[in-house]
Amino acid sequence: MVLAGCAALGVAWWSEHILGHVPCGLCLWERWPYRILVGFGLLGMVLPRDVARGAVVMCVPVLLVAAGLGFMHVGVEQGWWPSPLPECRAPTFHGGSFAQRLASMPARPAKPCDAPTYLLPGVPLSMAALGSLYALGLIPFVRRGTQVRTRFRGRGRKSIQG
User: Fold this and answer.
1) Residues 66, 71: Cα–Cα separation, whole Å
2) Segments of the chain with pLDDT less than 70
3) Within 13 Å, how many C-alpha atoms sit on residue 29's CB side?
4) Are 9 and 31 a contacting pair, CB within 8 Å?
5) Pick from 102, 125, 134: which is nearest to 9 by CA?
6) Minimal CA–CA distance to 91: which of 76, 107, 80?
7) What is the value of pTM for the model shown?
8) Residue 49: per-residue pLDDT
9) Looking at residue 149, what is its pLDDT?
10) Residue 37: which of 4, 69, 73, 70 has the closest Cα?
């Protein structure tokens, strides 16, 4: 799970810093479950076997939240519902002089949440949709990891002498 979370965060970093895509507010929210996934994966590596299994099992709800955030973002992109985040809406400027309006504008314009970012040319799936599918695709690996951990319980504790 550490590698899976780092891979998702790495793709987001690559898309933002190398490809120059500007993330919206929902894009930034979608990264949090993968950070938590990395944390649970690290706990699963360092904790005793029985406790580690619980940490790995906690990855399933985290991945479901990641898939839900991705689905919510796709709905905003497709216009099915408005974004729940206020930073995804266009800024409104009330009164004041032109200089005051310019001073209140952000230094870097935010990307609207309803503008999808397509990572793969020719594939009609936005990064939000791909992230949601990625999270759902990881769930069987979490379940498989918990089964392997319990299947080999007790093995490997014997010494060479006896």
Assistant:
1) 9
2) 87-96, 98, 100-110, 145-162
3) 20
4) yes
5) 134
6) 107
7) 0.75
8) 79
9) 45
10) 4
